[in-house]
Amino acid sequence: MQIQRRVEQPIMLPIKKIIEDNKDFKTFVFEGQLGAKPGQFIMLWIPRVNMKPFSISNQTEDEFHITVMKVGEFTAKLFELKVGELLGIQGPYGRPFSFKAHGENVAIVGGGCGIAPVNFLIYDAISKGKQVYFIGGCRNKDLFIKADEIKSLPVETSFVTDDGSYGEKGFTTDALKRLLEKEKIDQIFACGPEKMLVAIGKIALERGIPCQISMERYMKCGFGVCGQCCVDDTGLRVCHEGPVFEARTLLDLKEFGAYKRDGSGTKQKI
Amino acid sequence: MQIQRRVEQPIMLPIKKIIEDNKDFKTFVFEGQLGAKPGQFIMLWIPRVNMKPFSISNQTEDEFHITVMKVGEFTAKLFELKVGELLGIQGPYGRPFSFKAHGENVAIVGGGCGIAPVNFLIYDAISKGKQVYFIGGCRNKDLFIKADEIKSLPVETSFVTDDGSYGEKGFTTDALKRLLEKEKIDQIFACGPEKMLVAIGKIALERGIPCQISMERYMKCGFGVCGQCCVDDTGLRVCHEGPVFEARTLLDLKEFGAYKRDGSGTKQKI
Amino acid sequence: MANLSLTFLGAKIKNPIVLASGILGVTKASLANVVKNGAGAVTIKSISKDKRKGHNNPIIITFETGMMNAVGYSNPGIDAAKEEFANLNEVGAPVFASIIGTAPEDFAYMAENFLSDEYAAVEVPLSCPHTPGFGTLAGQGTPEAIFNITKAIKEKTDLPIIIKLSPNSQNLGEVAKAAESAGASAINMGNTHGPGMVINLETRKPILDFKVGGVSGPAIRPITVRCIYDVYKAVKIPIIGTGGVNTGRDAIEMMMAGASMVGVGTAVYYRGISVFKQICDEMKEWMEGAGVKSVEEIIGAAHE
Amino acid sequence: MANLSLTFLGAKIKNPIVLASGILGVTKASLANVVKNGAGAVTIKSISKDKRKGHNNPIIITFETGMMNAVGYSNPGIDAAKEEFANLNEVGAPVFASIIGTAPEDFAYMAENFLSDEYAAVEVPLSCPHTPGFGTLAGQGTPEAIFNITKAIKEKTDLPIIIKLSPNSQNLGEVAKAAESAGASAINMGNTHGPGMVINLETRKPILDFKVGGVSGPAIRPITVRCIYDVYKAVKIPIIGTGGVNTGRDAIEMMMAGASMVGVGTAVYYRGISVFKQICDEMKEWMEGAGVKSVEEIIGAAHE
Ligand SMILES: Cc1cc2nc3c(=O)[nH]c(=O)nc-3n(C[C@H](O)[C@H](O)[C@H](O)COP(=O)(O)OP(=O)(O)OC[C@H]3O[C@@H](n4cnc5c(N)ncnc54)[C@H](O)[C@@H]3O)c2cc1C
Ligand SMILES: Cc1cc2nc3c(=O)[nH]c(=O)nc-3n(C[C@H](O)[C@H](O)[C@H](O)COP(=O)(O)OP(=O)(O)OC[C@H]3O[C@@H](n4cnc5c(N)ncnc54)[C@H](O)[C@@H]3O)c2cc1C
Ligand SMILES: Cc1cc2nc3c(=O)[nH]c(=O)nc-3n(C[C@H](O)[C@H](O)[C@H](O)COP(=O)(O)O)c2cc1C
Ligand SMILES: Cc1cc2nc3c(=O)[nH]c(=O)nc-3n(C[C@H](O)[C@H](O)[C@H](O)COP(=O)(O)O)c2cc1C
Ligand code: FES
Ligand code: FES
After folding, report:
1. pTM: predicted TM-score of the whole model, two decimal places
2. ipTM over 0.85
3. DSSP secondary structure letter of residue A72
4. Disruptive mutation site among C50, C51, C57 for chain B (greatest number of B CBs within 10 Å)
């Protein structure tokens, strides 16, 4: 079933399956072909509650996944829902990750929640014949998502945790640097906490390796109208020109890694 | 230039040429490819005056014509206009004449004003390789339009006038009967005064010859919404299911040849 | 099988789609043709005491997202109209009359002299936005005017009265209540929106001869839905939801907002005269997918 | 060469297209980006004294012929907004402030404490159809309220005041005159229409979290044009025509109806952020074809 959208309104789909990734993460599976690309997101509507952005964490011929971390009111409500209940799906939106035509070796870095969108990217890279080096990082073992799934794929993996409870002790940046010394990497992709993204972007830029980074900002419309997600000083819309940007574009931003705005437009330190 | 229309609004075109057919008739020529078929009509807007239906009387690669008889306020106003002035063209509308796939010999009958739309049909028939037998009728010589033009075409013509001042004395019906005795006619087309159309339709039906007739009713919208042009008892819209109908459809109508309605919906005898 | 039939103002109707007044409603034959094409009921074009020529042409244009009209209530007047709309059983479905006037007395006159029990109901548009002397241009849309006109008609006819409102009414609830308390049996929500204007750039002139016209079609649907929602909250009498319905989905949306029947006019332009049947088929399809047995179940469902 | 520049409220502006308030107006950087994409002037998102969260999401949806929003005036409040909108020369074109409040005193407070002469003018929407306490939901659209609020602002600022009206106003002429007589320098005609409602059939619920929202985009253009036409007849102060403009043709139509400048918001959705430049290019092309040298020539041309 091809999911068709003519207007910016949610399409109602029943939850087909719920995977409990760990105590804070659940993956919600829906039926249908969304036609999304890795890095894109949907707006998810819990009727009469709220609507929030979530990345596509996987997509097959007839299914798509989102992987959600419970952090507040909306995600808590979402975690109460059962298989069969209806959710509104709007999208996909945003600029996806894109592979350079030439370049066999790609490094994909996911930190914490950021593993969700890059999970989809890994599948896509494999299907395009890329050699994938995946680096996954989390605070500790319990927070990891998709680790076993990714390990089972034809991918070189390295995992790091802040406390060493899973993989090596350390940060994704350390792992990336080690990788870049060992292998000729043609392109880097990253998603995760913004401070990590700044560091990864710098590593890539210093070495002249093309790098695409997915970032998050508070989103309302999701399709480029309200202006809530615009970043300083370019005014680019994260929902529309992003969420995936070239690392250079982001590092040039005044606010990247420094501050963001909440739903009222008030600035908050990162 | 292809004339493109997305909405039901007049497109403004300058009058390219005005041909004075006789004291009561003028042909207005416009530039552009309208994409009309014989039998179709346009709504003609004199800005801030009124908008009325007129048949396409000819069409070439880059021109189209309407041929107008001065009968009242609107047509009088139209006759005052000069080359270069802007008129609004909306359409083409309506069901056109259509040839049967097989059938070489076609009789085309035009009475008075009804010669205008069939003029275009004659050109079309010739281009499709039909053998055309044209019968033109008018009250007298001075009222004839397009006679010389049609005579110059590869068409068998016969002309009749009520008073014999042009061609033979008599009616188009007489001429048609004579023709049908002489030749095997495969299809008949007719436009003109309604009483004449009734008679022609009957002649065709009696002889089992397919016959298409173009009729007129008071029109407002021209595109099937207002209901002003609906006929009794079928409720068919002359602007949409017509103005060209099969003769049988018309002869079955309660009002054909009997009465019509004016712009308020009031019935008037024919 | 999904069931579209319902009871409306005491009449059994085969489906909730009713031809809106002013579209294909000039002749009885045309109404019958619309019924053949699937409408559950039909409304005649509005009739006044005296014959009216209406505005000059163009009286109807379309724009990118809808239609605009300023017909100006052309009609043949009471006598010719009585003749036109006789033997209404030949139409094949319930027929709603539509009467207009400039003062309560005119409406009373029309009720007394034009109506007959061949009609299933009489509709009274107090809401036309583009005909001087009538509707909102004549202040007929205020609660007071609505109350007085409804009362005047009520005294002269036993037919159920349907008051047709303007979406422009500032306080729709109040306006609908005025109709209800004066004895109206139903609300038609509603008439065309605006009015609007489209200017021809070359001539720098408005295209409609009356310059402005009421807006109908897809452009107005969401505002119509909200109006129905508001009226449903305010009154107990049933509602005909009219304005911008093009598909079965749209009709169901109107019913969920509170409509018992759904008026369809402009959609004839977009989808042809068989639009009535098309909409009914689409409604049935949706109902079957959603497990809704009778269309009456969904009336006002969005309020729960 | 066709000239799009004009003088508006004493300022020289490179073209008549102004970003409407509430679209891409949350940050100064976004305004500058809109100017880079061709706008002649920009309007900030409306600011209130206190920080506002606004309505829950969805706050914006589209339907077949337009857009509906119920943002609910989310904004960071006066202090954060002053910081956000400092050094406005960096924007690259005139910036219009937009202030809101629930009582005349709030507007006076905003005028005194928020505005600065970095702004080219201050716009005051008294016409939002979907935020309790503000606009038409709070009765700010009556001639009296408009008069009082305009006066209160006038006392606290020397900036030109633009009063933004609702298309729903029953007597637009009167309403516009109230603003003019209280000292407004211009009218913005206008805000979103309706409000409207779209119901999701599966859940049988309105989609917008606030249930109803103001309608914008192509659906509303003809009604906006008529509103501008009416206001132009009633007042001498210039008009910003806002509502449903998507193309250069539409902008010229608004100007012929009487607008001096043309607001553009929803078109960003339909044609991307470069819509401002696209519209200007289309206007120039039309002007060249029609032999119009300066865009100022066509203001109000449909009235002649
Ligand atoms: C492009 C994009 C992709 C995302 N993908 C994922 C994903 O795959 N998995 C996942 O778990 N989360 C993802 N998020 C974040 C997710 O949207 C928030 O976690 C969620 O909205 C929190 O809502 P809440 O009510 O539970 O928490 P709240 O208590 O409301 O907020 C907790 C935090 O979530 C963030 N947040 C809240 N609302 C929004 C919003 N409307 N837009 C953006 N951020 C918001 C803020 O940083 C806030 O501090 C993504 C965000 C964006 C912008
Ligand atoms: C499909 C169609 C094709 C036509 N083609 C031609 C044509 O090629 N050449 C031509 O000269 N005329 C044609 N007519 C008739 C033409 O529309 C009328 O002659 C014209 O509208 C008269 O307008 P008026 O103001 O000059 O006259 P009026 O004084 O208004 O009326 C004179 C007569 O014209 C007819 N008429 C008036 N208005 C209309 C109307 N809106 N729709 C239909 N008939 C009307 C009526 O029979 C009326 O009695 C056609 C009409 C129709 C319906
Ligand atoms: C061409 C036209 C003529 C109309 N004439 C009338 C009329 O005579 N009386 C009336 O009550 N409503 C009239 N209306 C309004 C319609 O009945 C209906 O309320 C409106 O068009 C909205 O519905 P729609 O979008 O389905 O067309 C007319 C509408 C159109 C488009
Ligand atoms: C998402 C959105 C938010 C809006 N927010 C405001 C606002 O804060 N203040 C205001 O005066 N108008 C606001 N408006 C109204 C617009 O400024 C404009 O008047 C309206 O959208 C019509 O113009 P358009 O069709 O070009 O969008 C908003 C409109 C939209 C679509
Ligand atoms: S979320 Fe509205 S513009 Fe990005
Ligand atoms: S002229 Fe309007 S329906 Fe035929």
Report:
1. 0.96
2. yes
3. S
4. C57
